[in-house]
Amino acid sequence: MDEGLYTREPREEASTDETKVKTHARKLKNKDSARRYYEQKLRYGKADNKDSLEEQKRKEKVHKQSQKKSADIEKKRKAADAKKKADQNAKQNVSNSSETTSRNVSKSTGAFSRTAADALTGAGVLSNMVESTDDDKGESAVAEEVIDTGGYIASGAVSSVTSKAKSHKYSQKIHGRKEISAEKDAAKQKAQKELQKKALEKQARAAENGGKIGRKITDKAEDMAALLWEHIKEFVADNPVISAIIVLVLLIIIVLSGLLSSCAALGGSGGNVTVASSFTADDEDILAVENDYKDMEEDLQDDLDDIETDFPGYDEYNYYLDEVGHNPYQLAAILTILYEKYTREEVQEMIQEIFDRQYEFYVEEEVETRYTEPEDEDEDPEPYDYYILNVYLVNHTLDEVVEELGFTESEMARYEVLLLTFGNKKYLFGEDDIYNIPGEGDGDSRDHTVPGEYLSDEEFARMLAEAERYLDVPYVWGGYSPSGFDCSGFVSWVINHCGNGWNYGRQTANGLRGITSYVPTSEAKPGDLIFFQGTYDTSGASHVGIYVGGGWMIHAGNPVHYSNVNTPYWQGHFLEYGRLP
């Protein structure tokens, strides 16, 4: 629920401080310097942005040449693909006995296909030129190479293609995900099947041998039992009193043994239950790992905050952001299932993988053709390019991460127990945590009744009806659906679905604050939004709810419920009221 002030107010001038630590976004910008140079040349190289008739004809001619050349490349690529496919099939038939050779051929073929696909269109050529900046090419050389390729590509197309390439590279830098080839998957599955087959064969042989041995032992035991029974009958017949005493002693021993074993089993099972419901790692390791994960989230938030500095020159920035945050008990439960008594050092790679699965951060550039508004009625509107940068952050939530990790049924059952018991370490992250520890606190209520006179405002009545549909829905970091909400996800959902004609998309608490106008506390009315700060470690608004009048709000705590805003906790974190347009 980490939010920057993402409004559409005029942005400040881009920073030119070269000593600033470079973020992932800045690295992306530098790698895209060729595109920026070429784009600057097209956009700002002339005082008059309108092309001359001669220049328009030249561009059309070059564009047609580019299309023809792309068609020729496509024909050559298809022919090469067909030839390669035939060669590959022949090689596979000859070398089926060599798995290593087969994989090399497959990998080579895949590399060729990707190279051919890149050569197919101007987009592929441009992508390779953008990537060539790593090979010590100058920016001007790259720009000239774009022209010399034979295809004039409009500025909007250049921006779109390089933006997608940039977004893909940035996603890889943020996430560092390793792609597993289909060939490796197939080989891995084949190896697993062979291992399973061998294990089953071994178990069958062991069972057969065990059966033979068991039958021999059974036969011997039957013979010995028959012989022993004959001796016992003779002893009882000769010594009836002694036999009765022996039987009585044996009964007492059996009863005592049963009692002792029952107590031991009870004690042992109690210990197992305690272990199964507990975080087994040391407290200092659990807290250290949690701090490492929070540091990664803070770095991600810094990248979001620096977007307009790292990507200057756009006419408009649009933000589509989920909250940044997670449930620390959930992270500790996942690591307990995977490692049991884990240490900070051994889980570093895993928490990076979990982070990569939870967050998806990318940007896309959009170019629109707009027209000027002439001051003189006799003048015609002039077309111009309008540049938009769309910024996306998707929080897939740790619930989805758990599904992707593929826990077994027993692991999943224990994971749910750990969440239910907070690993028997509820004290670790603060027992007054309104987001991660469910339950009603001071001033909370599910059954609060809003006075009828407030419902005379039809706009508010529709908001309240929609909001009350989700009472008791659990809190989920980044949640924006009726299965789970965070605070801003809940308010955004109600606003967009209550039928009042609003559609602001998925906003953060700061995003909602940015689209509302400030309202003094004395003038607040039902339907206004109420903002809080410092409910967790972040700047700006950290929590938001819908004010329902009489000092009450409905909001996504854990779960969705009503709260009295005049309690010491909420008054200590109060920021301001805001009214939707």
Biggest β-sheet: strands ordered side by side in the sheet: 4-11-10-9-8-12-7
Q: What class would the helix/strand composition place it in?
A: alpha+beta
Number of helices: 19
Number of domains: 4
Shape annotation? flat
User: Helical proportion?
Assistant: 55-70%
Tell me about the biggest sheet? 7 strands, antiparallel
The total beta strand count reads 12
Give the amount of beta strand, in percent: 5-15%
Mean pLDDT: 74
Provide a descriptive summary of the structure in words.
This protein is of the alpha+beta class and 581 residues long. The chain folds into 4 domains: 32-164, no CATH class; 183-276, no CATH class; 283-429, no CATH class; 444-579, Alpha-Beta Complex (endopeptidase fold (from Nostoc punctiforme)). Helix content is 56%, strand content 12%. The chain has a 7-stranded antiparallel β-sheet with strand order 4-11-10-9-8-12-7. A 3-stranded mixed β-sheet has the order 1-3-2. A hairpin with a 2-residue loop joins strand 5 and strand 6 (484-485). Helix 5 (122-131) crosses helix 7 (155-175), helix 8 (182-238) runs antiparallel to helix 9 and helix 10 crosses helix 13 (348-358). The protein is flat, with a radius of gyration of 35 Å.
